[in-house]
Known about the structure:
CATH architecture of the largest domain: 3-Layer(aba) Sandwich
Number of strands: 13
CATH class of the largest domain: Alpha Beta
Amino acid sequence: MNLRTLRTFVEVVRQGGFSQAAEVVSLTQSTVSKAVKTLEDDLGTPLLNRIGHRSELTAAGAIVYRRALVLLAERNDLIAEIKALRGLECGVLRIGLPPVGSGALFAAMFTEYRARYPNIEIQLVEYGASKLHECLESGEVDLAALLKLKSFNEEFYYQDVRIEPLVVVIPKSHPLAENISVNFTDLADTPFILFEAGFALNAVIQAACERKGVTPKVTAHSGQVDFIVDLVSAGLGVAFLPRMLAQKHLHHGIRLVPLDEPETDWHIALAWRKNAHLSPAAEAWLALAREWPGSEGRPGHSV
């Protein structure tokens, strides 16, 4: 039994005969007769009483006809729902973003995405890098914005979003505040203010310090950029932020000095699992990210 056979049977009933049904379903009359006979054989009972050129439903036929209408309607609804999903008339975008820099990078994109696809539900989670990795691996989110490191997970595909140099957020009174640039050797005796554990930017800074043979003196950790900038302004130490983010948190008590260190760029990429099927909603987000002004996005590829 299949849906095509059921549709043929339904048309026989609707049209009142085999020849009329054959025209509707674009089959020969003999093929229609065979389809109904096959259905009767499968169910083990006659479905039609053939009276001359007319056919009447048996009691079993009435049940099959009623159930077939429901099944065929469900099939049509299924096709319509899939078409709507592909056409982005419905669906869900499940995306994970880091707390640092997401507003600067993605807020306007969310506005544009909502304007283009108003019926897509957006499910957003915000975590540090390690938790975002877990969410992506477990399938809790379809896409995650991650800081791209050398140890970037090989189970993921990625699409670049933005590459920004780091700047040193330094107190206005610091001796190096007027420098054209500084490196970690220059800052060896200056306390650092870093992000909380789980933030990938810490790993970038610590790895660069190790390459220089510098052991940073960490005086504070925080997950809030505003608070970090306030701590710097108060003279507690120096901090490190992507340039575009630092410029949004300018303060009269600080200076922004370029960090002259290799392999310390803030490199954000959208990542997704290689073995996952991306939803149309997620594909649409990737497409928008590729066309967004300032994006480094290119078609997805693996690291």
